[in-house]
Amino acid sequence: MKLWKQTLITLVALCSLAVQAAPRELDRVAVIVNKGVILQSDIDTALKTVKANAKSSGQSLPGDDVLREQVTEKLITDTIQQQEAKRIGVRIDDSQLNQAIADIAQKNHQSLDQLKASIAAEGLNYQDFREQVRDEMAASEARNALVRRRINILPAEVDNLATLLAQETNATVQYKIGHIQLRVDDGDDKAAVEAKAKDLVAQLNKGADFNQLAYTYSKGPKAMQGGDWGWMRKEEMPTIFADQIKMQNKGTIIGPFRSGVGFHILKIEDVKGLETVAVTEVNARHILIKPTVILSDEGAKKELNDFIEQIKSGKATFGELAHQYSQDPGSAAQDGELGYQTPDLYVPEFKHQVETLPVGQISEPFKTVHGWHIVEVLDRREVDRTDSALKNKAYRILFSRKFNEEASAWIQELRASAYVEMVKEDENDG
């Protein structure tokens, strides 16, 4: 089956051609749908398309009467959705339409000329095909916009599904675990032991050798192995370990946490079978100058270049100038600092600068929609976003489920409230 025909049959082919079709001899109005009509030629064309596609794919079809009824009903619901698109002002311009048709050709491994030839070979008019695609795109946008309003996803739903997804993933994930145990015996000062545990965690977060600290301080069963428990699935771990591990990434330090015997520190030395998601966050600072009717673009750019000279000569610091002159109030109060953010949060020009500038280097003045900037990257860091990725996946699953349910209900409601009249042949004649 040709892909463009699949596209038509699933997305387009059954939509009304009433607007595009030129009057034809012996054609007649078959159905009135609100203030629009479906012509008999629309139904006949759709029937031919369905039968041709079924033949090429080897699918069986019901009898002609049942098939005609199904095709007519599909044309009715498509027409109603297209009317909704017009009602809320959805417009698909030629550039959007051209891109959609180019995508159809590409997915079918055809050039645009080859796609046109395929359409012509089936006896269809290319301009009609374009308008069918345009109508379906408009209907799809209207459906997306109107159905989205009906969807409500609670944070608890996302959390619960994310937990289930994590459990499914964890069933096959293996962790290489390091362990330090500080025992609390009768008569020991618990606060002092806890303070020591926190101190060890601080050392580890600064890069101290885990094995060395385990040899020195741990009273756990693997102390003489540098705290190394080897590779384990969660179901194979001691419960106090498994309860603390929730999809963390390689290198994560966990703890200290308390058990009946004392305080524990874990390190995830390595992970197998876990699809982790890491992103780069950038801590940058900037100075923003906004052009006005008095201050031109050139004037704003010159002011920023003057700031650069003052910073390089030591007459002022970046933070001092940002605090005094930057017209971004939020960051100016922080000496221009924006904090750790993913570059995607910024407008394209600013994103490019924070992604490409070496740490510690001040950019040349550059312009965005907000005005003129200079920016300095203070630091970059890799952040594990596996947990966020699971929640995003859970949200997408829930949205897809609810969208399909609500879209079906929305179409049924539209159909029930629409004026639909089947026109008998003799009514056209009269």
From TrEMBL:
Signal peptide per UniProt: 1-21
GO biological process: Gram-negative-bacterium-type cell outer membrane assembly; protein folding; protein stabilization
Record's keyword terms, sorted: Chaperone, Isomerase, Periplasm, Repeat, Rotamase, Signal
Record localization: Periplasm
Cellular component GO terms held in the UniProt record: outer membrane-bounded periplasmic space
Keyword Chloroplast: no
Top enzyme category: isomerase
Highest rank taxon of the organism: Bacteria
Start and end residues of each PpiC domain: 172-270, 279-379
Catalytic activity, reaction form: [protein]-peptidylproline (omega=180) = [protein]-peptidylproline (omega=0)
EC number, UniProt record: 5.2.1.8
Chain's role: Chaperone involved in the correct folding and assembly of outer membrane proteins. Recognizes specific patterns of aromatic residues and the orientation of their side chains, which are found more frequently in integral outer membrane proteins. May act in both early periplasmic and late outer membrane-associated steps of protein maturation.
Name this polypeptide is given: Chaperone SurA
Source organism of this protein record: Vibrio xiamenensis
Phylogenetic classification of the source organism: Bacteria, Pseudomonadati, Pseudomonadota, Gammaproteobacteria, Vibrionales
